Amino acid sequence: MGKVILEVDNLKTKYITRFGEDIYAVDGISLKLEEGKSLGIAGESGCGKSTLALSLMGYYFAPLHYQSGTINIEGKNISSMKPDDVRRKILGNEIAYIPQAAMNALNPTQKIIRFIEDVIRAHDPKAKKSDIYDLARKRFEILGLPESVLQKHAVELSGGMKQRTVIAISTILSPKVLIADEPSSALDVTSQKMVIKMLKDLMNKGFIKSMIFITHELPLLYNVTDDIMVMYAGQSVEFGRAKEMVFDPLHPYSKGLMGSIIVPEEGTKNNKLIAIPGTPPNLKNPPIGCRFAERCKYSRPECMIHSISENKMKNGRMYRCYMNESELREVYSNE
């Protein structure tokens, strides 16, 4: 096992509505991310992926609230830090976040270099303009972005160029962990390829040490990440190597999720697409038993009434199901 950069243990966060209701969006998530590795997080909309991304940064603001658990970046527990300390010492330096629709977050009235100045001066108020420009110019050049972009406004850039520029700005301080939330969504295939190449370059050139990649495009995860974690209703239901998660999923939800998409690989031509019936449970009052039970065609009465713990396998794989591996493979083979 390599050096662990990010370690999360039993993290629980919730939203509190204006009516005082609790929504348990992240419920008991644990994970380890090694240096030089990338983790993909998959799941349908509303399963808690983006909330987990926000929670991992240790920076909480209403309506999102921290409940319990720990977040360690190279042994530093950021979950117990004050929000101001997290903002000044952690965000950007230790962990960086690229949110969904990030390319629409750029102020159209400011030049790109001004955004970079703001990021760097938030951590070093005495930084000189000339030094900041030199750093930005060199970084953009290494990442394949022309120096001229620094003097442009966001409205002068294409969608793909804006997204790549946002990524460059977000990682200008060389964070240990980069969280990319749907970084290639709403882009054409060519722009997607360039964004993915840029993210890989950031790791290969040592500007980031590890990455968490969130997307609905599961075949993309297979080609980009080392491991995949599938989330459902705020919980991790399966974790494993990317190849086995796509071609040999164990959890019924993972299997349904993988069966509902087309994987452009040899041997999948005749596979039929299967939709998962129903909708995720209401997280204001989550089920006692398996959260997927009401939608699972393999569910048993005991799935509804017993809490489901994680089943950990020798190879590091994990799945959360009442059935053991042999039972799951048997029901799958009988289909």
From TrEMBL:
The keyword Transport applies. InterPro entries: AAA+_ATPase, ABC_transporter-like_ATP-bd, Oligopep_ABC_C, P-loop_NTPase. One of its GO terms (molecular function) is ATP binding. It comes from the Bacteria. Keywords: ATP-binding, Nucleotide-binding, Transport. PROSITE patterns: ABC_TRANSPORTER_2 (PS50893). Residues 11-258 form the ABC transporter domain. Pfam families: ABC_tran, oligo_HPY. The keyword Transmembrane helix does not apply. NCBIfam families: oligo_HPY (TIGR01727). This is ABC transporter ATP-binding protein.
